[in-house]
Write a structure and sequence with these properties.
Helix content: 25-40%
Number of strands: 39
Shape: flat
Strand content: 15-25%
Distance between the termini: 37 Å
Strand order of the largest sheet: 1-2-3-4-5-6-8-7
Largest sheet: 8 strands, mixed
Number of helices: 27
Radius of gyration: 33 Å
Length: about 950
């Protein structure tokens, strides 16, 4: 007999695509009554040993009753999930709600028994770990708080799945069975485990695309100039180290060769395994090609074909179908509408792109969502980085991904790969959308702690999402997103030129130890321009040293060596112009000698960065790009902090893997002082962030915070708001003044009381109750927080002054009904500030701080941090705004109590972090006095908590 809970509709939101440990994908979905045949087929492929571990007895086949029990679920008390590849089961998991005696139960029982079965061929791929994350999320949704599992002691693999998950556990042994009990609420350890598994899986999925053992190009025509033929020739021209196959339905069945490689009519006809397929056929033929690849066991796809979401709704649906089809076979996709991928490492040498030549090998990773920008970046690194073709160069390229419509593989995935890629020291990204800012910031913080991550974002002011890029929309302004990413260690630049400039410096030079910059050269004007640029970038330049136009390369060498030896210098800017003879003709038309002299000087102190600004000095950039040292005994490879891993590299070479080439030093040369100094300024700020990141702050615990009381208040207030809503539907609710003060007081945030004053007599009584002196102010929307308009009267010492002020306000601005006047006790004088929080659907909770009025509203001078805010974050917020000097005694004023302000920021952050139902907090103004802070105005809005995708199980974006 079915209970009412049996009538629950199919929970489609439980469906998800996941990346497994080996980089392949699987689909997780609820098991339904239609899956009987799939379940039987799956069970037949499971070994007798695995069946024994599951049922504790020989269980060769499933009875009809078993099949019904395992395929009919009420989706509440009994739930089953399956992991599928190609539509067939590869693993299952189920839970059954039980009571304290272990018997079947319904809510409010909050415990369930869980059991797994994984096909032997797919064991070791992390399938059970992924299923555990998803079944735990389902259980939490259905009110289950604990799982129990009984496992045979010999089933060590399954025991490890449970023990490694990071949940708080109890373990016992009874009657020859290991009994495990664990809570399902995410813990710091379970989230850390989940994120580590996510990184390994996503990195491996990208590695399969960038370092394949074999490649097939689908859509290779016989005529020269076609896309498929061009990519085939580019792969062969780069010297790819594995087998290459050409595929086209028009090839003869008897077999043929094209450009010296075997040609096939279909991927199915290739006898050997194929790791990567590059698809360059018309969009209408792509589904057939994908099916052939999936059936052959291809691991990943690069889809060059266009005609997808960039062409409108019909193409968008075609794109969704492409990704669904590819994932059903366990394949990941770069594209569609992609420019291609490049990997210059000697072990691979892959150029599966439309770029005609393999770039100079180096240490820079590139990701772009635009093929045109990708071409520009490759050209700029080749031009500005110098170096002979094929000769390894730190400012050359390690890997390149142009993702096109970015329907599947995104910048987040490539960042996961770069994190422990031993061949990449600097990551450059051109992004047109940041689909998941919360995840991007988390991954960026982790990556930036090991190697620099430089990002330029296109379409940041237009508000237009490029067609073809599926991405959730953030409501946060670009300046806020930029600040949040800088908080995560991302180096944000505004142009592609700056992206290359900063990348060249970080790839070729060590990080500066501080902001002190020496300037020297043979041009006084260039020296002064460099000095001014340093000041604009917040650096601390030393007085420029003019070597005069008579300076020789030896003079440059000696001056640079002296500057580098100075303990008061952290970096050096060298300026150079051509030497001009008496007759006006350059005496040395090239800079080869100067380049050699500068390299020799830098070799004496390679732990300090050097940049060169030159004007029409032929050959200097090429001379500077020569390696300062490549052998293991050279100074350039022995000293100096490089912008590489700050901790032991998880991807370090093993005994079976050759280590990457030693780091070399190459001095970047720029044609303008502003470009060189801007790049140096970014390096200084990034180095400072990395030093601070090694000492992360903490979220303080305040003993006076009443978290439970606040939770009870929020539940009560939301319930009351829902009861008044039409149909009882949940909705947002702005709290009244009393409820706002009470809720904030639970977190130690005291709001000065405010009493309404609809008429002069009521105002007098309110002042008598609060105590003089008082303030009289209007709360009408057009005058609220606008002291500059005269809607506030301060320091009213008695009834006479209060009545006079009341008459002035009503005479100037309108009736009391229009002004909504209130009376408030005076606060100590200080600096007016504003504190706000907002919940963005893509980025999460954001805390904002600034000075009240024009600085924040007109000039946008605000600081932003993701919640929760640490003590170090709060300190940085207060000091990061341009008007911060007003808080620290500017022009002889009294410094205010910034520690109290920082504490207020952290208390508000705790409130929002502890209670996601608090979706908006506005504290304005917050008067920061020499002693203490006073919150004069506050507003709080509650709503049902938004979904937190960062706390849920690992999933790929839905299609």
């Amino acid at each position: 007999m079915q209970t009412p809970s049996d009538q629950h509709a199919y929970p489609a939101h439980w469906e998800a695509d996941v990346v497994l440990r080996d980089g392949g994908t699987a689909r997780i979905r609820p098991i339904t009554a239609d899956d009987a045949d799939r379940l039987v087929s799956f069970y037949e492929l499971v070994s007798d040993e695995s069946k024994y571990y599951r049922f504790f007895a020989p269980y060769p086949r499933l009875s009809a009753k078993d099949v019904r029990r395992f395929t009919h679920h009420d989706q509440v008390d009994r739930v089953g999930l399956a992991a599928t590849v190609g539509g067939e089961f590869i693993a299952t998991v189920r839970y059954d709600r039980i009571d304290a005696r272990g018997m079947p139960a319904s809510a409010p029982a909050d415990e369930a028994e869980v059991a797994f079965l994984v096909q032997d061929a797919h064991q070791g791929r992390g399938v059970a770990s992924a299923l555990l994350e998803h079944i735990a999320a389902v259980a939490r949704e259905r009110g289950i708080r604990r799982f129990t599992a009984e496992v045979l002691p010999a089933n060590t693999k399954m025991i490890k799945v449970f023990t490694d998950a990071g949940y708080q556990q109890k373990r016992s042994f009874e009657d020859g069975v290991v009994r495990l009990e664990f809570g399902l609420e995410p813990t710091d350890r379970s989230l850390a485990v989940q994120h580590a598994r996510e990184q390994r899986a996503e990195a491996r999925s990208v590695q399969r695309l960038l370092a394949p053992g074999s490649v097939a190009v689908v859509g290779v025509g016989r005529a020269l100039g076609g896309v498929g033929r061009s990519i085939l020739r580019n792969i062969l021209g780069a010297g790819f180290t594995g087998p290459v196959y050409a595929v086209n339905q028009g090839f003869p069945e008897t077999g043929d060769t094209l450009d010296s490689v075997r040609a096939h009519r279909s991927v199915r006809d290739i006898a050997e395994p194929v790791d990567l397929a590059v698809i360059a056929v018309p969009a209408e033929r792509v589904p057939e090609a994908v099916a052939e690849c999936g059936e052959h066991g291809v691991q990943g796809l690069v889809v060059i074909s266009a005609g997808y979401a960039e062409q409108g709704p019909e193409g968008r649906e075609r794109q969704r179908a492409l990704i669904r089809q590819a994932r059903s076979y366990g394949m990941r996709v770069i594209g569609p509408n992609a420019f291609g991928v490049i990997n210059t490492t000697p072990e691979t040498r892959l150029n599966a792109s439309l770029a005609p030549e393999l770039p100079v090998p180096g240490r820079v990773g590139l990701f772009t969502q635009s093929g045109a920008i990708g071409i520009a970046l490759l050209s700029a690194l080749h031009r500005d980085g110098g170096g002979a073709d094929g000769v390894p160069n730190p400012t050359g390229v390690s890997t390149f991904v142009s993702a096109g419509n970015r329907a599947d593989v995104s910048g987040n995935d490539v960042m996961q790969y770069w994190y422990d890629d031993p061949h990449t020291d600097v990551a450059l990204m051109y992004l047109e959308t940041i689909g998941n800012p919360r995840k991007f910031a988390r991954l960026a913080r982790r990556t930036a702690a090991a190697k620099p991550l430089v990002v330029v974002q296109g379409a940041r002011h237009s508000g237009i999402t490029p067609t073809g890029h599926p991405a959730p929309v953030t409501r946060l302004p670009y300046a806020t997103v930029s600040a949040l990413l800088r908080q995560a260690g991302v180096i944000r630049v505004d142009t592609v030129t700056e992206l290359v400039d900063v990348g060249l410096l970080l790839a070729g030079q060590p990080l500066p130890a501080g902001p002190r910059v020496a300037i020297l050269g043979n041009s006084e004007s260039l020296g002064l321009l460099s000095y001014d640029a340093c000041l604009s970038e917040g650096l601390r330049p030393l007085p420029p040293r003019d070597l005069t136009t008579d300076a020789t390369p030896e003079d440059f060498r000696a001056a640079l060596a002296a500057a580098l030896a100075d303990d008061g210098c952290d970096a050096v800017v060298v300026t150079a112009i051509p030497w001009v003879g008496a007759d006006g003709v350059p005496e040395r038309p090239d800079g080869e000698a100067l380049g050699a002299a500068l390299r020799a000087a830098h070799a004496t102190a390679p732990d300090k960065p050097v940049v060169v600004v030159h004007v029409e000095l032929g050959g200097l950039a090429e001379a500077l790009s020569a390696a300062a040292g490549t052998g293991p005994g050279s100074p350039a490879t022995q000293r100096g902090p490089a912008p590489g891993p700050a901790a032991p590299d998880p991807g370090a070479a093993t005994d079976d893997e050759a280590p990457p080439a030693p780091r070399t030093r190459r001095i970047p040369a720029y044609p303008a002082a502003e470009r060189a100094v801007r790049a140096l300024g970014e390096a200084v700020r990034y180095a400072q962030w990395r030093r601070e990141a090694q000492r992360p702050g903490g979220v303080p615990e305040y003993e006076d915070i009443d978290e439970r009381g606040a939770a009870a208040d929020i539940t009560r207030l939301l319930a009351a708001a829902d009861a008044q809503a039409p149909g009882g539907a949940p909705r947002a609710h702005t709290l009244g003044a009393d409820d706002t003060r009470a809720l904030l007081a639970r977190y130690g945030v005291d709001v000065r009381p405010t009493l309404p004053a609809p008429d002069p007599d009521t105002a007098v009584r309110a002042a008598a109750h609060l105590g003089y002196p008082v303030a009289l102010k209007t709360t009408a929307p057009h005058l609220r927080h606008r002291a500059d308009l005269g809607g506030v009267r301060l320091d009213l010492a008695d009834e006479t002054q209060l009545r006079q002020a009341y008459a002035e306000l009503t005479g100037l601005f309108g009736t009391p009904a229009e002004l909504r006047p209130v009376v408030q006790p005076m606060a100590p004088r200080g600096v007016d500030t504003v504190v706000r929080t907002v919940i963005d659907p893509a980025a999460g909770a954001v805390l904002t701080f600034g000075l009240a009025g024009a600085p924040s509203e007109l000039l946008g001078d605000t600081a932003h941090r993701l919640v929760p805010v640490t003590d170090r974050d709060a300190t940085a917020m207060v000091r990061s705004i341009r008007t911060a000097p007003l808080l620290f005694g500017w022009r002889g004023s009294a410094p205010v109590d910034t520690p109290a302000l920082e504490e207020l920021l952290q208390r508000v952050s705790r409130l929002v972090d502890d209670h996601p139902e608090v979706v908006d907090v506005q504290l304005e103004p917050v008067v920061v006095a020499p002693r203490g802070v006073s919150v004069l105005g506050a507003a709080v809005r509650l709503a049902p908590p938004p979904a937190r995708d960062d706390l849920g199980p690992r999933t790929l974006p839905a299609y």
